[in-house]
Amino acid sequence: MPRGSRRPKGQNSVPSRSHEVEAISTSMIRVGRNLFCSSSNATTSDSSNKPEDKISVTFVDKDGEEKLVKVPIGMSMLEAAHENDIELEGACEGSLACSTCHVIVTDVNYYNKLEDPVDEENDMLDLAFGLTETSRLGCQVIASPELDGIRLALPAATRNFAVDGYVAKSH
């Protein structure tokens, strides 16, 4: 069963970044006697919009309608769905606080290529409507070259426990 399967320790599942350069940006601000510092990293590619920098993903909606989209490497499936007008809710905006971006990986071989879900994702998946052995949260499935051709089915319904009046925003 895929949910219980684990990759051997030491197996590197991080995509190769041979054509990318990682930069770190640091900023500091002084407030009174305190100095606050933050840093972030950004990845820049030596050439943008190359076809190999995107993968093909097929979303299958609750009615069986398929939509093939190109997704940039590093983008979550939740973001990809929002950018391509696919009805995948994402009420918590990818913060692992809901299960409304629940997707079902239709091929166990692709499911096994994904990073193992963290405990917080498993906790949210326990609340998902129509949970399967290959269920994941779309916000946690990140496009990588080995996922080229993946098919993601959207469940017939979702459970949104957000408070009344909450409006989800796309990324």
UniProtKB/TrEMBL annotation:
Per its UniProt record, the required cofactor names are:
[2Fe-2S] cluster
Alphabetized CDD domains for the sequence: fer2
Read off the InterPro entries from this record.
2Fe-2S_ferredoxin-like_sf (IPR036010), 2Fe-2S_ferredoxin-type (IPR001041), Adrenodoxin-like (IPR001055), Adrenodoxin_Fe-S_BS (IPR018298), Beta-grasp_dom_sf (IPR012675)
* Signal peptide residue numbers: none
Superkingdom of origin organism: Eukaryota
* Region of interest: Disordered: 1-21
Q: Where is the 2Fe-2S ferredoxin-type domain?
A: 55-158
UniProt keyword annotations, A-Z: 2Fe-2S, Iron, Iron-sulfur, Metal-binding
* Molecular-function GO term, any one: 2 iron, 2 sulfur cluster binding
Query: What protein is this chain from?
Result: 2Fe-2S ferredoxin-type domain-containing protein
Q: Which organism is it from?
A: Urochloa decumbens
